[in-house]
Structures are given as C-alpha cells and as structure tokens.
Design brief:
The chain is built from five helices and eleven strands. A five-stranded mixed beta sheet has the order 2-1-5-3-4, sandwiched between helices. A three-stranded antiparallel beta sheet has the order 6-7-8, with no helix packed on it. Strand 10 and strand 11 form a beta hairpin. Helix 2 packs across helix 3. The protein starts with a strand and ends in a 15-residue tail after the last helix.
Length: 257
C-alpha cells in the first residue's frame, strides 16, 4: 500500500499519497491555487510564481507546484503575504500583456483573465506604452502565433523537451514562443482572432474516439480543436487531419475561408 502523508492546508486536514506536491494536495480537496506553468503531464517547473504559498517553519514563500508534502506540514494559500505577492506577480505579467480580451479567441476561458479577476489589480499603474511584438506570425500553414500574449509559462518548450524530444523551440532572456495545444494564454491559435468561445458551436470529432477530441465551429468551419479531458488530442483529430475537410482552413494562416 502506498504510504500516505497528512498535512494541513488552510486549516483543513488533508491526506495524500507520499510524493504529492502541495498544489496537487490542495486541488484534491477543492482549494484553488492559481498557476500558469504547471501541467500534470510535465515535470514541475515553478516558473510563473503565481502558485507561491506560505509554509510554517520555512523561510519565504514556496512554489506549490514543486514543493512535495511532508507530514504535519502547515500550508496557507491565502495569507496577506501570499495575496500581496500573487497580486504583484499578476500586475507584472500585465505590464506588457495586450488588452485583447474583448477580441481574443481565448476570452472567456483564459486562465490569466480568470486569475486577474480573482486576485489581480483592478487598474494599471503603468502609463508607458506596452512592448510590441509580432502578431499573427505563421508557425506553420495551420498555426499562427501572437508573441505579445506569451506569459512565459514555458509549457511549449517543456513539451518538446520531455515528450516530443524535438527541441525546435526555446526562450532567451525570458521572451518565449507558445505551444498551441498547452498554452494557457492562447499565444498560438488556429485562426487568429477568429471568434470568441461563446459565439462558436462545440461538437465532437467524428474521426476520433468518442469524447477524445472537441471541435469549435463557426459558420460550418472548424476554428479550434481541443481535448475536453485535458489530455493530448487524438492524431486522427489533429489539425493536420481535419484541415483538409474544413474548406481550405490551411489556405493561409490568420485568414478564414
């Protein structure tokens, strides 16, 4: 039988298997700790710093996604220091992040948008012009990239390092490209600024196993492909397959047929 560890998170006693991270332990009892860089199928990274928590008898705040639970550990996820730091990190991320929410295809289902609404600042203190980068830059005939939306989560690079074993992407001096499958801020998108999630229709991919791949369509055209179970999408439902059956989506990146 797998050894269990009992700890306290926000005054709630939690028992989880040995080796579980604080983030996963909190998630198991419904306590939300925000994170942008964490993904269950990738090695812990601790890069976004939004998941910082306070742990008794440990100096300074610790990243919940990389800290392994210990017996009798006491964790606080919403102390004044944690909330102040979380707010400051979100404000820093928004310094050069574009205000594309009303037209962003990720609007309404964006992790960064949700986190700022819950824990971020209500107004910006910056009056300087934001840094501008390439928008609608073609990564392939099917995928375009919006570099201004990158939140430096490094999921795209880590996916290529740990799963694909094909180091095509990296980031230097913190700027980074994005993985269109796992990006939390919609840096790369199938059709740039195509539509908002609430204006599209969701359906299942007939070429994949039931429930494995979900398509979002508008006007009869597929504009987004995703996995409703948050796993890798099926190969039969990948953009390389469905593009040939959706009226020339691959004509040119960033355009609609």
């Amino acid at each position: 039988m797998e050894p269990l560890v009992t700890l306290t998170i926000d005054d709630r006693e939690v028992t989880v298997p040995e080796g579980t991270t604080v983030l996963e332990a909190a998630k198991s009892v419904g306590i939300e700790i925000p994170t942008l860089c964490y993904y269950e199928k990738l090695a812990p990274f601790g890069g976004c710093r939004i998941c910082l928590v306070e742990i008794e008898k440990i100096r300074g705040l610790q990243t919940a996604c990389t800290t392994v639970v210990r017996p009798e550990m006491v964790v606080r996820t919403a102390s004044p220091e944690v909330l102040k730091t979380r707010r400051a990190i979100l404000e820093f991320l928004l310094t050069n992040h574009p205000l594309d929410c009303p037209v962003c295809d990720k609007g309404g289902e964006c992790d960064l948008q949700d986190f700022v609404f819950k824990w971020g600042p209500t107004e910006s203190r910056y009056i300087e012009e934001k840094r501008h980068k390439r928008k609608a830059y073609a990564l392939s005939p099917l995928i375009v990239k919006d570099e201004e939306r990158c939140v430096l989560c490094r999921r795209c690079v880590r996916y290529l390092e740990e799963w694909a074993d094909d180091l095509q992407l990296d980031y230097f001096e913190r700027p980074a490209p994005g993985n269109w499958k796992r990006c939390p801020a919609s840096v790369p998108i199938a059709v740039w600024a195509a539509t908002s999630p609430w204006t599209s229709r969701r359906t299942s991919c007939a070429a994949s196993a039931p429930g494995r791949t979900r398509l979002s369509t508008t006007g009869g055209f597929a504009i987004r492909v995703a996995s409703p179970t948050d796993t890798w999408i099926a190969l039969k439902g990948s953009p390389g397959r469905w593009s040939a059956r959706t009226a020339n989506l691959s004509q040119r990146p960033g355009t609609r047929p």
